[in-house]
Design goal:
Strand content: under 5%
Oligomer: single chain
Radius of gyration: 21 Å
Number of helices: 3
Shape: flat
Distance between the termini: 48 Å
Largest sheet: none
Helix content: over 70%
Length: 74
């Protein structure tokens, strides 16, 4: 791929990203409350279908991660 083709490809992706973001905000702005609640319920239901290992029910690693971050600040 030539430098010009790479530049055109990157430019196309940047424009596509901009258009997708514009579309996303348009859809969010026109979303009614009932549809928003339905979408939230669907996402929560999907997350609850993922089985958690028994160890995650008692320890997620978040506290250990926070300790590591805290140590780096000192």
């Amino acid at each position: 791929m030539t430098r010009e083709a790479e530049a055109a490809y990157v430019k196309q992706w940047a424009e596509t990203g901009r258009l997708l973001e514009e579309q996303r905000w348009h859809e969010l702005a026109s979303l009614d409350h009932a549809r928003a609640l339905e979408a939230a319920d669907t996402l929560i239901a999907a997350a609850l279908m993922v089985p958690l290992p028994s160890t995650r029910r008692h320890w997620s690693g978040l506290v250990a991660q926070q300790e590591i971050f805290h140590r780096r600040r000192r």
